[in-house]
């Protein structure tokens, strides 16, 4: 067996299942689950209709590069969304089966373990656990940059020494961030590009939450967009995007990567062997989804309505606030995050995710400790009820000696 498999930790939701063993939720309350970042808004009917209308494509083997129609639809969306005119759909865009599998497979393409040292893969902390697994199974070592509220959840780039940076081959960023919702600004990107230029590592920009934001006039800055604004090309930079959150189709498993043509050429070669071609019917439905924006604006409206209603309630008892973007509240807990989640389930039948499960201890700190991630994915009424239960629970804690 691959020895690197032994380095993988249980996924956060497996840890949550173990944490809840032996807990009997209060039967006076129905369950409200806000632990998993799974969109629950309705999938637009036109996407489902496009999927079923193209089932004839199941008779054909798809290519790893995807159809020209899909790549062109993605290129057109990138121009509308980011002002990226001139992105080459044949060399700078590659459809993938959701950003998750691509983020994992990308490390297997980029990491070179033959240089006489153990490569480093840098990521934010807390983080999406795929980054860690991808690093280990590529023969690299993850290096975590704590993102803390006292630093406005910024990456602590100064934590790495010159010798550390010389070993970095891949850096994952997530903007908007999971779980903090932090969006990198142009100055953040300028620092990352300067480091990439100096040390030669590739930047993988996970932007799967890019379309969940609260001000239609201020969409989050993207990595490729930042490169253009700084007068750069896409050297050593690849972005990852997805329809899952944008269009409420997590089961469609549809996204794309875009950026450095030389890097994507190697990634395409890897995927040709890996078997990463997208279902033809999914490709047809995806092209239609990328070409339509009204449903995305309505999706954002629903999230904004929930955040406007729920954030003040939760913030009245827990330290939290409106994120830059994404659909999570990242809230500090008055007791250990695991105990908070366990007792909240037992007393009020609300499920949230302990923040420590989303992070690792780095330089003596687990930046997820004493936080919980609250995913506002349920209907508005459920989110409001859950917020009121959380308020009652915290007030109950405050009354205890």
TrEMBL record:
Q: Where is the Aminotransferase class I/classII large domain?
A: 32-390
Matching Pfam families: Aminotran_1_2
Q: Which cofactor does it need?
A: pyridoxal 5'-phosphate
Q: Which InterPro entries match?
A: Aminotransferase_I/II_large, DapC_beta/gammaproteobac, LL-DAP_aminotransferase, PyrdxlP-dep_Trfase, PyrdxlP-dep_Trfase_major, PyrdxlP-dep_Trfase_small
Gene3D superfamilies linked to this entry: Aspartate Aminotransferase, domain 1, Type I PLP-dependent aspartate aminotransferase-like (Major domain)
Q: Which UniProt keywords apply?
A: Aminotransferase, Transferase
Record CDD domains: AAT_like (cd00609)
A single Gene Ontology MF term assigned here is: transaminase activity
SUPFAM superfamilies recorded: PLP-dependent transferases
Protein name, please? Succinyldiaminopimelate aminotransferase
Q: Which organism is it from?
A: Azospira oryzae
Q: What is the lineage of its organism?
A: Bacteria, Pseudomonadati, Pseudomonadota, Betaproteobacteria, Rhodocyclales
């Amino acid at each position: 067996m691959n020895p690197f498999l032994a380095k993988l930790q249980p996924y956060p939701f497996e840890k949550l299942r173990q944490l809840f063993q032996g807990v009997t939720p209060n039967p006076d309350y129905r369950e409200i689950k806000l632990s998993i970042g799974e969109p629950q808004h309705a999938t637009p009917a036109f996407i489902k209709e496009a999927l079923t209308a193209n089932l004839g494509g199941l008779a054909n083997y798809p290519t790893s590069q995807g159809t020209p129609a899909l790549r062109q639809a993605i290129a057109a969306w990138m121009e509308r969304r980011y002002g990226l005119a001139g992105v080459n759909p044949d060399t700078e865009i590659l459809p993938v089966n959701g950003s998750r599998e691509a983020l994992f497979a990308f490390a297997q393409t980029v990491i070179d373990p033959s240089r006489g040292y153990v490569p480093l893969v840098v990521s934010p902390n807390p983080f999406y656990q795929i980054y860690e697994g991808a690093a280990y199974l590529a023969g690299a070592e993850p290096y975590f940059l704590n993102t803390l509220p006292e630093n406005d959840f910024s990456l602590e780039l100064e934590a790495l020494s010159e010798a550390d940076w010389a070993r970095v081959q891949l850096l994952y960023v997530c903007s908007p961030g999971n779980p903090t919702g932090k969006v990198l600004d142009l100055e953040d990107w300028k620092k990352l590009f300067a480091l990439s230029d100096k040390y030669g590592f590739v930047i993988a920009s996970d932007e799967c939450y890019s379309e969940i934001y609260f001000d239609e006039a201020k969409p989050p800055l993207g990595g490729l967009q930042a490169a253009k604004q700084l007068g750069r090309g896409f050297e050593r930079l690849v972005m990852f995007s997805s329809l899952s959150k944008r269009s409420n189709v997590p089961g469609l498993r549809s996204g794309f990567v875009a950026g450095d043509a030389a890097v994507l050429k190697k990634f395409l070669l890897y995927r040709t062997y890996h078997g990463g071609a997208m279902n033809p019917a999914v490709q047809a439905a995806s092209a239609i989804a990328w070409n339509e924006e009204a449903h995305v604006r309505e999706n954002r409206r629903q999230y904004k309505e929930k955040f406007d209603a729920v954030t003040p309630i939760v913030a009245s008892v827990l330290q939290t606030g409106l994120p830059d973007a994404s659909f999570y509240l990242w809230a500090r807990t008055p007791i250990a995050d695991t105990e908070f989640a366990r007792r909240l389930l037992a007393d009020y039948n609300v499920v949230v995710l302990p923040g420590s499960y989303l992070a690792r201890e780095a330089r003596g700190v687990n930046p997820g400790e004493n936080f919980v991630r609250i995913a506002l994915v349920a209907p508005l009424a459920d989110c409001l009820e859950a917020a009121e239960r959380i308020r009652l629970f915290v007030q109950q804690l405050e009354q205890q000696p």
